[in-house]
Amino acid sequence: MTRRYLAAFAAGLVLTVSACGGEGAGSGTSGSGGAADGDITVGVAMPTQTSERWIADGNNVKAGLEEAGYKVDLQYANDDIPTQSQQIDQMITKGDDLLIVAAIDGTALSSQLAAAKAAGIPVISYDRLIRGSGDVDFYVSFDNFNVGVQQGTSLLTGLGLLNEDGSPGTATGPFNVELFAGSLDDNNAQFFWNGAMSVIQPFIDSGQVVVKSGQTTIDQAATLRWQQETAQKRMEDLLTSAYNDGSKVDGVLSPYDGISRGIITALQNAGYGSAEKPMPIITGQDAEIASVKLINDGVQYSTIFKDTRKLAEQAVTAAEAMLDGEEPEANDTTTYDNGVKVVPAYLLESQIVTKDNIVETLVDTEYYSQAEVDTGQAG
Asked: In 3-state terms, what secondary structure has residue 202?
């Protein structure tokens, strides 16, 4: 129950609040009371503005909350953990009524969340699960294991080992593939990796996929802070150490478009992208416009489209329910154990994007215009 409702109760108001878990987040009078007052502030903590994805998330969440009648305290931390901690501390001190947090490090906010709990401020974990705290009330994200499955499947499809329907392809290999993972301080990185490896590992076991570098664990493949430059340097090192015998890279599992672009730069600098040395099959995630153009141009093979407009909408829906003293609707109450509790979650679905369906998935849905796809720049 929020401080708004505690104050109302203290004033002797009679409230009828449904707390049934099966009740839809937007049911009843969700958001109407506080929104009309215009005195409810939601703190939104986003990790960085270096990724267009997080800029869009922040803008979409802010717009949705403001449309619902709330004030919004939106902060970006530029991938600096102390900065994000300080920003959340300030949100609590200022008296924000609810927090939506996309954590830089999912284990670094326990004291902030404890302070929020003590102040009666609900916390929604946004896209990245906050770990090690019992004070996370709700989680909105995508089905992150399935995102990894889609990445692994698109890699194998691009190599010809699988058909689009999941049946065996005509190619037999062996193919040289290198594996990249996300940042280990982001809980999602493990889900992406496990999902991808669930479909790739059988092909490694059969010898149809060969990881020539021998780096097959998530610790070896991790990319701190998902940085493009870090991925580029690792790909350069892999080429030097494992491919100096004239062998070629056939595919690269990449969990994020920024990492993909770093990988591509390293490969291009090594002469890949010609008829004699074609660009490997390279995956990605987030459908960033620069990578969508690379896919359209035949450089990157695929990305995973997670419609963050829907994610922001679900975060707003959950916030409205919580600010009305209700339990937001969850469609997963078993998967996301943060080490202290299983956090109820609402998960959204994602889509594989290749050159063949860019128009259908991104242009027709008005996520991007065709001009943006052609130029690689969001207008």
From this structure: helix
- pLDDT for 102 beyond 70: yes
pLDDT in tens, 282-295: 999 999 999 999 99
Cβ-contact 153, 130 below 8 angstroms:
no
Q: What's the pLDDT score for residue 37?
A: 52
Q: Report residue 15 as tokens.
A: 């409230």
Question: Is residue 8's pLDDT more than 50?
Answer: no
Tens-digit pLDDT profile for residues 241-267: 999 999 999 999 999 999 999 999 999
Alpha-carbon dihedral sign for residues 169, 259, 188, 147:
negative
> Who's near 283: CB < 8 A, 6+ residues apart?
151, 154, 155, 158, 252, 253, 254, 255, 260, 301, 302, 303, 304
Distance in angstroms (rounded) separating the CA atoms of residues 377 and 312: 22
- Judging by DSSP bridges, how do beta strands 138-142 and 123-126 pair with one another? parallel
Exposure string (b/e) for 59-83, b if CB count within 10 Å is 16 or more?
ebbbebbeebbbebbbbbbebebeb
Q: How far is CA 19 from CA 8, 66, 138, 227, 329, in A?
A: 17, 25, 14, 42, 10
Torsion of CA 226, 293, 126, 8, to 10 degrees: 150
pTM: 0.86
Q: How many CB atoms lie within 10 A of CB 92?
A: 18
Q: Which of 137, 88, 187 is nearest to 346 (CA)?
A: 137
Distance in angstroms (rounded) separating the CA atoms of residues 77 and 45:
8
Contact call for residues 60 and 308 (beta carbons, < 8 A): yes
Sole residue written with tokens 């982001």: 186
Tokens read off for 249: 């890279």
In this structure, how many other beta carbons lie within 10 angstroms of the beta carbon of residue 117? 17
**Strand arrangement of the beta sheet that strand 251-253 belongs to:** 209-210, 175-179, 251-253, 281-282
Contact present, 229 and 237 (Cβ < 8 Å): no
Q: Are 176 and 210 in contact (CB under 8 A)?
A: yes
Q: What was the pLDDT predicted at 379?
A: 76
pLDDT band at 116 (very low <50, low <70, confident <90, very high): very high
Interatomic CA distance for residues 120 and 169, integer angstroms: 55
Cα(209)–Cα(308) distance, integer angstroms: 33
